[in-house]
UniProtKB/TrEMBL annotation:
Any coiled-coil regions, as ranges: 309-340
Every ABC transmembrane type-1 domain range: 159-441
Pfam families linked to this entry: ABC_membrane, ABC_tran
Protein name: Antigen peptide transporter 2-like
A GO molecular-function annotation: ATP hydrolysis activity
Record-annotated ABC transporter domain positions: 474-707
Record key words, sorted: ATP-binding, Coiled coil, Membrane, Nucleotide-binding, Transmembrane, Transmembrane helix, Transport
Membrane topology, record value: Multi-pass membrane protein
Lineage: Eukaryota, Metazoa, Chordata, Craniata, Vertebrata
Main location, first listed in the record: membrane
Length: 713
């Protein structure tokens, strides 16, 4: 920091020496009009490369880039100022052609002081709060440009919106000007026959401002709604394609928040900030032109006031944020202390520590009051300084305005118009700074949403295999699997091999945590095995079409998940169309036709099926599975909550048509009637065979059956 300040001071001194040398050379050579407009531009053009080379030689890194901007401002500010003064001057006055006078004070003092002030405000005041490293700036820029591309379908809407925005800003800019003209007419300084015309102009631009602003706002909101709809649909579609492991790591509440809150915040912040940024920038330029046309002297005073106030505001905001954080910490400590003391009042009373706790709490309150006192002092000092700056600049403006009015170069109406421009001008610059910081602060939200949009599912893509005839023979070949939340060296399944035959029922048996549910999840392709493979009719599962596979393989769990909506919606979930006759036919076969007849097909089942009993939910889940006419059915304790009659009817219906059935059950009768039993323990197949064969072995199945499947248990 000190090195940069020293280099900046050296550059200012070198600029002064060069300016003095150039001015003296022009005078000695008797160059015509050394203070003219061409001479000022020539001086700036001559100094710029010299100072640029000196800056490159003396500095490096961040200081070099800042000082290069300072050099450009130092060399260009005087020519631009003089050019603006000539442009707004009265063409009939000699000032419009003579250019500036060769005043050494202006040459050597005004330019470096104003350039230093402007550079300091830009680097520290306006950009300090949202300052990023070069890599972060590039990343933020890329994110914003990518987000802007999503507005491409609304190009015509945006063109219309920005057109109305510019028209509205132009009307806003002329309102104070015509107000000043009307005031001059009221004082009788101009002919009264133009009064009605001036009032008409004022009414016309006011009406145009309101009309164009309303149309601009409406079109922007419409475009924003369309953007949010597109982004939400795209993000929701992307989330649905992710593997189940992704949802294990990211909770539904967080994803839902990203989908709704973050997408809306992202679109609203960027769209509305772009709207405000363009509006404020255009309005600032137009108002600055109007103010220069009214009085360049008063405009220069305004340009001094705004940077000073911006610098004060930036410094106060930094200090205020730190004090607010301290106050929040004090509040948290006080709350914790009070809660701890009151919650442990029995201990406090037992040790007669009431006075000590009161002393500690009082000290905590004193500490918080001290921080609040400092915050109040800083706030008061800031308010005093801000008002002093405003009052000082206002006094200088009034003195300058009195001189201009006395000399006839400014009217009362023009002075009123200038003051009407001054306040919005300051607000526009604040809004530009705020929009910049607000947009930068959204980088994290935008980056997170785009990271979800860019994420590719970490699973094998589904193939296009969809045979008309499916036998349903399933083969597990040395399947090894572990969840993302568990270490790789402790897999849930360890080289599991088993076969499920068509037309037969296979039962998975084993203690809790043995891997039964993991086998079901892999069979439904909710997860991918890390080793081995699962074959369906000799083909890996991922070779089949996604929709085909899940239509031919149905799962009925112990606690089926239903969705809010009608009975029809839950039964036909994922299907295009199924007739009510087919549903009633399936219900009749599993003895659930009475349940279906009592409910209308369009009956609302409530949120997550809350209006139905557990048995009714299982009935719906079984019907939902069977109307798909699957070839493979997986039952995870799927009949435990049905009545006896329905339980006896479900398995024969499921086993009909040569289906492959996998049962995960804890009921004795279900396991005994299975054609094949696979006993899992610690992720391995320990035993397999029929009930009689396993009981004859008197191994783990026999012991578990004695412990868990006993009728007395």
């Amino acid at each position: 920091m000190r090195e940069g300040a020293a280099c900046g001071l050296f550059i200012v001194l070198l600029d002064a020496v060069l300016s003095l040398a150039l001015w003296a050379g022009l005078v000695l050579l008797e160059f015509p009009g050394p203070g003219g407009l061409a001479g000022v531009w020539a001086s700036g053009a001559a100094k710029w490369p010299v100072l640029h080379v000196v800056t490159s030689a003396l500095t490096d890194g961040e200081h070099r880039s800042v000082l290069r901007r300072f050099v450009a401002l130092l060399c260009l500010l005087p020519p631009v100022f003089v050019s603006g003064r000539v442009l707004v001057a009265n063409p009939s006055s000699p000032e419009a052609h003579a250019g500036p006078s060769p005043d050494l004070i202006v040459l050597l003092l005004l330019a470096p002081v104003s350039s230093s002030l402007a550079c300091a405000v830009w680097e520290k005041g306006l950009c300090g709060n949202g300052k990023l490293k070069d890599g972060d700036q590039a990343n933020a820029r890329q994110l914003l440009m990518r987000l802007v591309k999503y507005f491409r379908p609304d190009t015509l809407y945006l063109i219309a919106a920005f057109s109305f925005l510019i028209l509205g800003v132009i009307c806003d800019t002329f309102i104070p000007l015509y107000q000043g003209k009307v005031i001059d007419m009221l004082r009788g300084q101009v002919l009264q026959n133009g009064f009605c015309f001036a009032v008409g102009q004022l009414a016309l631009v006011s009406l145009g401002s309101a009309l164009f602003s309303g149309m601009r706002g409406g079109i922007f909101m419409c475009s924003l709604a369309r953007l949010n709809k597109r982004l939400k649909h795209l993000l929701f579609h992307t989330l649905l394609q992710q593997e189940v492991n992704f949802f294990d790591e990211n909770k539904p509440g967080r994803l839902s928040s990203r989908l709704h809150s973050d997408v809306e915040r992202m679109g609203r912040t960027v769209a509305l900030n772009a709207n405000a940024l363009v509006r404020s920038s255009v309005k600032t330029c137009l108002m600055l032109g109007m103010m220069l046309q009214l009085s360049w002297q008063l405009t220069m005073l305004t340009c001094i006031e705004i940077p000073l106030l911006a610098t004060l505001q930036n410094k106060y905001s930094a200090v205020s944020k730190e004090l607010k954080d301290q106050i929040q910490d004090c509040h948290a400590r006080n709350k914790e202390l009070a809660s701890q003391t009151l919650g442990g009042i029995r201990t406090v009373r037992s040790f007669r520590a009431e006075r000590e706790e009161a002393r500690r709490y009082n000290e905590a309150l004193d500490q918080m009051c001290a921080v609040k006192r400092r915050s109040g002092i800083y706030s008061s000092v800031f308010c005093v300084l801000r008002r002093l700056v405003r009052v000082a600049i206002k006094i200088l403006m009034l003195l300058q305005a009195r001189s201009l009015i006395s000399s006839g170069r400014l009217s009362i109406g023009s002075l009123v118009s200038f003051f009407l421009y001054q306040k919005p001008m300051s607000n526009n610059i604040k809004e530009i700074s705020y929009c910049y910081r607000e947009t930068v602060s959204m980088e994290g939200v935008i980056s997170k949403v785009f990271s979800y949009l860019d994420r590719k599912p970490r699973c094998q893509e589904a193939g296009d295999l969809a045979p008309e005839k499916l036998r349903g023979r399933i083969l597990f070949e040395n399947v090894t699997f572990s969840y993302a939340s568990t270490p790789q060296d402790t897999p849930v399944l360890k080289s599991v091999s088993m076969e499920l035959q068509p037309g037969k029922m296979t039962a998975l048996v084993g203690p809790s945590g043995s891997g039964k549910t993991s086998c079901v999840s892999l069979l439904k392709r909710l997860y991918e095995p890390q080793g081995g493979r699962i074959l369906l009719d000799g083909e890996p599962l991922h070779h089949y079409q996604h929709k085909y596979l899940h239509q031919k393989m149905a799962l009925v769990s112990q606690n089926p998940e239903l969705f809010s909506g009608s009975l029809r919606y839950n039964i036909e979930y994922g299907l295009r169309e199924r007739s009510i006759e087919r549903v009633k036919e399936v219900a009749k076969k599993i003895h659930a036709d009475k349940f279906i007849s009592e409910l209308e097909y369009d009956t609302d089942v409530g949120e997550c099926g809350g209006k139905l009993s557990d048995g009714a939910k299982q009935c719906i889940a079984i019907i939902r599975a069977l109307v798909r006419e699957p070839q493979v059915v997986v039952l995870d304790e799927a009949t435990s909550k049905l009545d006896i009659e329905a339980q006896h009817a479900v398995l024969p219906e499921i086993l009909s048509r040569g289906r492959t059935v996998l049962v995960v059950a804890h009921q004795l009768k279900t396991v005994e009637t299975a054609d094949h039993i696979v006993f899992l323990e610690d992720g391995r197949v320990v035993e397999e065979g029929t009930d009689e064969e396993l009981m004859a072995k008197r191994g783990r199945y026999h012991r578990l059956k004695e412990e868990l499947f006993s009728p007395h248990s």
